[in-house]
Amino acid sequence: MLWYDEIMEFINAIIGAPLGVLMHWCFELTANYGAAILLFTLLTKIILFPLSLIAQKNSIKMVKMAPALEEIKARSGGNKELFAQEQKQLYKQEKYSSWAGILPLLIQIPIILGLICVIYNPLTYLFLLDHSLILDAIRVTSEITGRSIADMGISAELFAFEAIQNNPDAFVALPGMSDVLSNITSLDTGFLGINLTETPSFTSPALIIAILSALSALVLSLVQNRYNVLQMNAGFFSKWGMTLFLVVFSGYFAFVLPCGLGLYWTAGNLLSIPTLMLCNLIYSPKAYMTDEFRIKHKKLSRSERSQLTQQKREQKVRSKQDIKRFFAKDNRCELVFYSESSGFYKYYRGLIEYLIEHSDIVIHYATSDPNDALFKACDKQIVPYFVAESELISFMMRMDADIVVMTMPDLETYHIKRSIANKNIEYIYLDHGFGSFSMVLREHALDHFDTIFCYGPNHIEEIRETEYAYQLPQKTLVKTGFALYDELTQIALSFAAQDQTTDKKCSGEKLQGAPQVLVAPSWQPDNIMDSCLEGLLMSLTAQDFNVVVRPHPEYVKRFPERIEKARELIESIDASHITLQDDFTDNSTLYTSAAIITDWSTVAQEFCLTQKKPAVFINTPMKVLNPNWQKIPAIPLELSLRNELGISLDVDEITLTGQTVTELLADSLAYQDRIEHLLSELLFDVGKGAAGGATYLISKIEYLRKTRQTADSKRSEPKDA
Fold it and tell me: N or C end of the chain: smaller count of CB under 10 Å?
């Protein structure tokens, strides 16, 4: 095996030589083979200690970043590309290197390879014999033992060393051997009664070295699981899976190589323990290991795990069946809506109901929520499909339809791509909030859509300015009102009518009751829930308001530990006047509240515009996904409307919130008039928001139908003879 010999020669020259010098020095100092290996191990640990410190600092950075990484994971919602991008940005910001953590382990690899060379070549490295003399000694060994040089392989020097010790007279005649013969024969390679040049077997005493190596790995793993900055916070399978691997590897490593290497590995494992303790003493991780930095995972019972596994299996089968049905040859798809979850149907509802009432278009509705409420719909014009997240990428790339409508931005820039099966699909973006595009969507999030449904003039202005700034081709912009606004307005009027009826029948006690204030934060980093909830609630209850805290649904779903902490906080302040609402099937609090408090959630626009009631905006860090949003001259609605729909306060002014709400309610009629005036400037087609978009879809599909009919009729015409 010529390539193997060349590799070993390279390792000998680059790594083995300097380590051989160190090993020779250790041998000269101790005059004992086993002691030399132990001293060598200690010196390498000392030499590598700065790398261990670097790894410790790096690990502490990882612990500090753990909450942020968990939050990024939660907010990315399974989008692996988005998670990877934001993770990379966080690593860069914190100057974290994934290589620094494994650097000591990587350095161990060449050291072990070099030590293997030293152990297998004692004549070269311990006794510094001339290369020609070593070849002569190996030749004589072959003659004495009857073993060919080729059969000896990399152990040739070990065989020669053993032969010299057993039969020195056979080698004394070799030129230069007499000068070192006594040194070689006097070297004791024993350690605790074990020959360190021997390779263990199941029947030899040397097996104890392999056992000790495995036990040392077990002890090291147990210590690391308790004191290592990363291992102490790892999950059960991570801890014990790594423990099992290290124990098995260490035992096997010491079993298949000479015992000297097993002794080195055992000593190295044991010396890693004081190294770990010293690193913890110099850079202590304790300050970062509080409960706030521990990632808590709910432990499922065996039956719960089994049920979850079965549920996933059933959903996988169901998804494959629905996808097969979608791509069936006889299933002609003109119009497809894609929904990320059940909650997104409300943004499509107006369009779909208009389409059903005014056309015969079959609506193919793909959703990644197996429990989407649409599956309970009875209308024959709606054909639902469940597409699991794991199947979504390929599903979208195989998409074959005329028009695809989505509320999911970042088409083509992240995991969801335009179809490669049908290049002529028209992709339409429908926003799921009444806000800006430039600030709350990522840069280039809409570049690959063909058409945008625009709720108001600000959308048209932002898209056109974006196209100009980035030299993009013009998209089709369709003026369509915000259908959800119309729906919410009707609900608000219904609640208002109920309140008036109730007030007439009730005593004056209800009118004198404390107003209800709705706290509805976003779920972005540093939102109200995470930054100033306690001060906010204290300020509101001091003014005798009844308070409903309604976190964002995604916040409730992704951060259950924080919700529990919020419950405890409410209990400690005033549970009789504060309610935490995490059941979103009931939206009544959106219509029974006198005012709303939020940070950057677009729920404020929906609340204020539909009910003509004011808002208090808390200036937590802005929800900015596009760092270059200021390249677009249009002022985002999230900024321009804050002091039109109410009053904004900085976080350090949180104690003024209660008094501010009191002042807003005292001036509620003025805000009602102001918001009424704003509506005509902000929204197209107030009261008939679905008409513009639905009419566009109908006309476009009718045009495509006529185009196909014309093409079909031409193909069916008889050709001239």
Answer: C
